[in-house]
User: Fold these one by one.
Assistant:
Number 1:
Amino acid sequence: MPNPRPHTPGEIAQKFSAHFRKKPEIYRAPGRVNLIGEHTDYNDGFVLPVAVDLSCWVGVTPRQDRKLVIYAENYSDQAEVDLDAIGSWQKKPSAVYPVGVAWSLEQAGHRLKGCDLYIAGDVPMGSGLSSSASIEVATALALLETAGIQLDRTKVALLCQQAENEFVGARCGIMDQFISCHGKAEHALLLDCRSLHARAIPLPSDAALVVCNTMVKHNLAANEYNNRRAECEEGVQLLKKAFPAIAALRDVTSAQLEQHRQLLPGKIYRRCRHVVTENERVLHAAAAFEKGDQLTIARLMADSHTSLRDDYEVSCQELDLMVEIAVSQKGVLGARMTGGGFGGCTVNLVEHAAVEPFVLSVGREYQQRTGLKPDIYSLEAAQGAEAAVLVPNERC
Ligand code: GLA
């Protein structure tokens, strides 16, 4: 399966002009794949995501009034909202993320201008590659720049997360918005989700980043995500009996958890064990990437998947099968589920020479065993969000 063909700035400009009869400014923000560190971000822990070369694109021009007119290409739908009455807007799926971002920016005291917006995404929706964060961040840049407001990128990420938490109602962590804002070409970022300090970690030059989409998204995902967060919070409350100073599972080591496991009901213990051991795996993995220690990377990715499957219970048959098939192929340096779980994608590190046979053989076997034809992409680590520059012959 070839990669989805990314849009170009020229295409977005043309489509915008055809729709709104004006010439836009264009902004782009990428989706992401997470190498390791799943469900750790909302526990103040560590993650190792990569911004990928699939983006959301937003064309924008200012209006004279305080309205946002939002055309969402992926839904072939247009929505309108008055910036002074966002609270009474009837939420519709095609525009809930962009309107949520406008809401959180205004809540934070940033007075926006009315705008016409054309939104087009390369990131497959609902596949666990953070299409939503890419929409949020690209919209935030478009709205802020049009209003002449300069805002630090980490603040942009936090306000986008707030939009998702409070306007959309998904209690996501900061990973997706942060990497969409700060991604670095050819690198992953080791992000400390408490301090929001990030360090760039070079990706192996001999391996490609291959993403396999199971093509399923089980609809318990959103509910179960919020349940897992609540279970982690319960774990922290119970562990406080032994460690009053802890604020999050980030503050607990494996040894401490084992020593006091009798404080926790079985299920809560397993949830905590996933988070605590996953944090340790992220730090080891970052060091292994820096040393080029491929055996360790492979083991940590496998352990991460097992822990997500057995302790955190956010995998599913299709993800487990996709990983099982992947690790039996030649030239695979690591494979695991990526993102929130319950469907979506796996992430695989595959030696360049092995990518083509990997794509064919994993695609064939997965289809034989599930009846589903998976999308398999080889992605590049890309730069974070930016204003897109039109190359001269692309101008419309
Ligand atoms: C989703 C959320 C992230 C993170 C991952 C799991 O992608 O948006 O904040 O919690 O799930 O690691």
Number 2:
Amino acid sequence: MSDNKLRSIDGATVELLDKAQKENISTVFARADEIKPCPIGVEESCCKICAMGPCRMPRSKKGEEKVRHGVCGATIETVVARNFARKIAAGTASHSDHAREVVETFIKAAKGEAQGFTIKDEVKLLEVALDFGIEIEGRPAKDIAIELGEKAMLEFGKQSGELVYIKKAPLKRQEIWRKQGVVPRGIDREVVEIMHRTHMGVDQDYEHLIQQATRTALADGWGGSMISTDLQDIMFGTPVPTVGTINLGVLKPDQVNIIVHGHEPLLPELLATASRDPEIKAMAEKVGAKGVNLAGMCCSANEVLMRHGIPCAGNFLQQELALVTGAVDLMTVDVQCEMQGLQGVAECYHTKLITTSDRAKIEGATHIEFHAKTGLDTAKKILKMAIENYPNRRHEIYIPNYSQDIVAGFSHETINYLLGGIFRASYRPLNDNIINGRIRGVAGVVGCNNVRTQHDSAHIAMIKELIKNDVIVLTTGCAAMACGKVGLLTPEAAREYAGAGLLEVCETVGIPPVLHMGACVDNSRILVAATAMVKEGGLGDDISDLPAAGAAPEWMSEKALAIGQYFVASGVYTIFGTTWPTVGSERVTRHLFEELEETYKGKWAFEMDPIKGAQMMIAHIDKKRKALGLEKARERVLFDMAMRRAMA
Ligand code: BF8
């Protein structure tokens, strides 16, 4: 067995890793072997916010017995909480700066100033306009959209008051947030305040720091991310279940292969449109290719997959390996989760790496900036560059024979429609199936890949354990792609992997047991779905009452921590795997893992074993079922299904 099978459960990844090693090409996997995690950094026991340090304050062998202080007197609690809060600020800033770009483009699209963009979903436009308190009666869509864009933009710079979307949460949740003083005022204000409070000599009380981290994370989930999802839906269409294909086998040896990688779906949308232009196809044929093959990578992939069925080449740890096929003529990257190592790999082949955002350049890559006014021209220019690069292929092409059909695009609106039907769109059937026990509960399993664990394996082990136990899984980001690659995103997967109760529901409705809800900003869809379940009735009056839990078993990015913190503050029990960034302080860890539950009814947990993690989630779901008085219903259903199976 190749050693690389220990690094990934995905065959395409293993084959290309073998190839990269043979060709002596540096990838994230090789670099991870060369660089071991810093033992002090991994505990977050290092303070480098002033020039009197850095102060290294590792745990003593006897745990917390030794009192640890930095040069300024900062306690280890302050240092660890500061580091944690800064990560949440960075995660929130990332999702929200993405949202800002979307809002700017949205306003231009509404004014007719964005090439190739219009308002596609007028129903959602009206819904979101109402959320923002905008008058819709008798007004043209264009005017409503301009006002919506302008009001959404104000959410970033607001100095006081509350974010508009806070009112979408269950009333009980809003009360908790107000009582705790964590309702975000403006998105940017909360991020800036963390940066201020974590400057040398400002906020030096770990609970107070975590409180601001919570307010900032809420500004992500119920602010930036939600704005991003909603306005993207209005511009590009709200996703509906769409059939697609995933894994590196989607690359074509005889076509011009272009990969869109990153997070903002703006340019990828235009590339999708422009790649269908007959002129582009003719150009490709002129250079000897059979056409242009557009594929996605990371969250950009999720966006164009859900809305256009554009194939998905893979998730985070596959980005460099895609280039190792020798078949990628051009890759565009915008923002977030793009490894600098890409340029080095691109140089080993003929691939052109193009940076497209004004916020991100990579040394050595070609920079072609995307601007909404000229977006379609830029898209065409990039496609032409890719086509011109096709004859420059100088290596033998090797595309692993792995691709898998999937169904993606389960927005909140779609779940509503699928379960209730067009005339009575509703979460009632979902709630009823939870109440009667066919579905035991709901789990959100989301997040990244992390090279410190076997690629994709924790996602799949955890999710299989959950669905086997009748827990329906909602997924986004790289977790969703991991599911796709092993066939969990097909209705047929229910028969193979789901428990009897969940299988019955999936077969009746025709859905997979794992629902792909989009990119990482689309975790906001999970918040909206959870709120809809609460509002539908019968499952308590707050998100924390739902038999539900969340997890990111292979997380690595700061965005994941912001997501986790807003789920916890929204009342969700949330388990992370891989590593935990507050182990340097037992008090801070206890605060996050135990004390937060007293106020927010949600808390963090850390578990490296994904099966154990799934069992912890199931135990939590059962605890919530019991609190709702539902445990008896489930016992009855299980008996019925066992009987039915015995009869089959
Ligand atoms: O936002 S899941 S590795 S690609 S951070 Fe990045 Fe993590 Fe993937 Fe998308 Ni999300």
